[in-house]
Amino acid sequence: MTAALALVASACGGGGGGSKSSTGGGDAAPASQYKAAVTQVVNPSTKTGGTLRMGMPGDFDSVDPGDMYYGYAWNFARFYTRALTMFKPVPGEEGLQLVGDLAEDLGKPSDGGKTWTYKLREGVKFEDGTPVTSKDVKYAVARSLDKDILPSGPTYFNDWLDTGDYTGPYKMKGKLDSWKGIETPDDRTIVFHLKKAYGGFDYFAMLPQTAPVPEAKDTGSKYKEHPVATGPYMFKSHELTKRIELVKNPNWDAATDPNRKQLNDSIEVLLGQNEDDLDQRLLSGKIDVKVNSTGVAANARKTVLTDEKVKQYADSALIDRTWFTNINGDVKPFDNIHCRKAVLYAADRSAIQGAYGGPDAGGDVALSLMPPKMTGYQKIDPYGVEATPGGNVDKAKEELAACGQPNGFSTTISFRNERAAEKQTAEALQQSLGRVGIKLDLKGYPQGDYFKLYAGKPDFAKKNGLGLMVYGWGADYPEGFGFFQQIVDSRVIRPAGNTNLGVKDPKIDALIDQAAAETDATKRGAIWAQVDKQVMDSAFILPYVWAHGLFYRPPTLKNVFVSQNWGMYEFLTLSTQ
Amino acid sequence: MLLFVVSIATFAIFFLVPRLAGMSADDLASRYVGKAANAQVIHDTAIRLGFNDPVIVQYGRFVKGIFTGVDRNYGPGIEHCPAPCLGYSYVSQNPVLPDILNRLPITLSLALGAAVVWVIFGVATGVVSALRRGSFFDRLSMGIALAGVSLPIFFTGIVSLAIFRDQLGLVGDVADWVPFSEDPLTWANNLILPWVTLAFLYAAGYARLTRAGMLETMSEDYIRTARAKGLAERVVVLKHGLRATLTPVLTMFGLDLGLLLGGAVLTESTFSLPGIGKYAVDAISNNDLPQVMGVTLIAAAFIILANLIVDLLYAVVDPRVRLA
Amino acid sequence: MSPFLDVKDLKIHFPTDDGLVRSVDGVTFGLERGKTLGIVGESGSGKSVTSLGILGLHKGRGANISGEIWLDGEELVGASQEHVRGLRGKKMAMIFQDPLSAMHPFYTVGDQIVEAYRIHNKVTKAVARKHAIDMLGRVGIPEPGRRVDSYPHEFSGGMRQRAMIAMALSCDPELLIADEPTTALDVTVQAQILDLMRDLQREFDSALIIITHDLGVVAELSDDILVMYGGKCIEYGSADDIFYRPEHPYTWGLLGSMPRLDREPTERLLPIKGSPPSLINVPPGCAFHPRCPYTERTGDKARTEAPALAETEGGHLVRCHMSPAERRDLWENEIKPVLETP
User: Which residue intervals define the domain ABC transporter in the entry (chain C) (predicted)?
Assistant: First the structure.
């Protein structure tokens, strides 16, 4: 049903021309209906002209395609850059599908997934008219390896490419051609050589780090002032930390780019806006779209959810994020799996859902760790949460008995001070675990140092008896590796600043390796589902909420839908006419 | 003397800010790399940024940069940031000084505009209140003044935006900063609410100060003399009364303006004005030491400058202060 | 034909939160051109309020003013504020005590004189400045062309008082009121200033009121003297009447308090015990009775009945319950001998 709607809507978006979204599901006016844009394109239009006005509470980590890590930055970067692959900009599950962008198609694995070959499209040019070659892509990836100059992007290429001694073109000038980690047998072919097999390399190829950068125009850490465009728009001005203006790129050719249009005359981004005020301007239609990952902030959420006139233009949609609490096996008696399971049974997930803002603003009650919109998700519910979201006291007591603590025990729960929802979560857990005799001490820490000094520092957590640590994680991209690896792979644990707060299960590690090497997407998805199940079985993590973002689209905004991939509005299609 | 105090202060910041954050060199460095950098990258960053050096060495490097400039590797080449160089931001990698100077016109526009509004309204209200002590106007305006100094600007700011922009539509919806030289009307339109909101906060204090000063001055003997000469009451109040009252007002004005030029932190954040105050907030929340240092120095410079100007103006206003 | 300045039953009352302050409570006197009246009393006796009342400076400031003030045939109590303002500084001017606080510290002496002059004379600044220099010269300030640009704090006390006089005289006032003109000055300067005022009065032929707590100041200048106590006139007569035939015990006290060169300054021959009365709760009966050494002579009357101001002889008025004969007897036999003791 969802997929069907999406297909109809996107078809309509292709040729509609200003009329309201067609009514695949029989709705009278889907454009002004709550959650309409979750499954279909709202206000399809092919009219051109106008300025798309975007506003942002902070700033991008960078707009240099080689130096960005946030989903909204990657989403935005596709206005002016073209990476080798991209997620299809369509609503519904189809949006999780990777397609060729700068490359004609997805990569061709060989050597068991250790070598990936891409063929570039013909006729793609930079904004100055220079043709894009495979060398520009190689250079772009190579420069992103230098974390001294470009520190913000992900390190997948550093970790997986066969870099040898090569440390990037800044430190090793003139060595690019002799570096064989990436080869460019001709101007349209690029070959990546990995250290070990990785089946999901097309996801890496989607990273903006593969968007071509002309070496002659590269200004290192200053490149963000004017990244050279290959997409339909290019930088007209970039007043750092204040404002970005994009205009049409005259050298972009629609014939080479089946996934993009060039409807807006220009795109303006106001940076560093006061968030409450930005939300107000969004609600009054003075800003077309807010650039962030979770939609409107707490104050505006109330307006959006309580005023039906406003709510009809809002969308509550799953984002690739789960709110959960780590159960620390280093702290007794959680070294015993039964004590951990007692927590998983006793927790009242409904109360925590309330703490995060309820089903609309907060999210759905989580049955397992993996967010359900991710590729490969299979529904599992090992603790019967769907039937008893308030917790199962009897089962919890059974597990406590099995653990040798029939009367319960005391431990400490940590949370981030600045986050009211996490404090309320800790309180909800204190209450629900109290029902089976597990007494919790609440301990808040400053958010900025939560990982560097407190919960994320195993020594500290152990010494201070942090048995439970409130936490949450969002995926880099909607595929198992991008979600799980940083939080459940025991081998990423380091002395401080951890993202994995203590999940140590060799079975999980092995499954991750297996999934990483699998080149068949379907099989890989199945392994990630197994990882999800194993995480639940080893009971190091108590997931409770699959997060939703609450997004608002002014009625004047055209071609709007929530991308299942980004978990926010797809920027590429937006227009105003 | 002042320079000495400033240098001590900056050193204290240099020394204390990272310590207060309670971070090791790697902890600190991990803030300036991507959100999932590995330990090696973090460690390299710490070394590159010099976090492992003794604080005195780091400070020395900073001070040296002010006098000799700084060379920085931006990737494809080496860039020289000429003296006085306040270094490069750890986060944005931009040189600090041009960033601050770039934002100066915004803070300047905000502070000076607001100052005009608050001096006019504050002093006028204070004078009228003093002359009609105990009247309805006096009570009302002093009540409003109390509200003015008590209400936080992020409250008055957001409320005034909601009322005047969103409900009444009295000011345009251009939220973008436009320089005066480009379009004075839009410039003023964009700034009128921040001016008024900021001025509301300050005008209150000036009204109270002026009122108290006027009450005192108007009972002075020389006011009686002025009246005995047959001067019109308006002249007595404005030429003789207000003139004497303005000395403490001027002192306060200099200090306030100096502080504001160092960044109207809350106002700029509330109204999304990318001025020096906003810069300072971002710098502190990012723990971006070069930015914090830069903005501290610039703010200190403004305060010193403002004090100097006030001292000079003193002599103009009050002949008793003049040196023989 | 009424005199140049004719004050009749002047009352100036100030309503306050604590009650009605009767600062001036029925004062009557007259003054001709070229003549000098001394108003004498302790602080709080109402003498300064009277003078400010004549200038109309209490108008519109919450004071209840009644009675009549006739100046050159014009009634001022009922006149408009604006009209009285036009007279102020021109027809009548005032010299204040303590010129350091009475002159504006931020303007030059010259500017302040120029301002006073230009209110009432439509002249250019340059002309007014020339006039100011001229005035400064006439009051005996050396190098007036240079001092005109000095600030009050740059003057000595005596010079400041001269400048103050120059300012007051700048518009040739016909009535000049000097409020404690010499209090802040040392003795030799006092004498110079008094001489100056006398000379200027002759030159301008103006009526002069000198207000002081010190009978010595008015001794040489005054034609008539009015002694005030508790807002009321208690004795009024010619200078000779007051100095040679005083009849009120309070006046005797004032005479006894006059500093004399042949005695120690701290020595008081006839000290007045107690302190001036509260102007809100004026003592019943004779306002002076709590401090009067002769209260017992009139019995309960002193405490219950207010004495009237009555003429004893030839325009000499006294407010006392004792009979004129009794008072003269006391003066001749008890007071005068003490005062004249070498």
Answer: 5-255
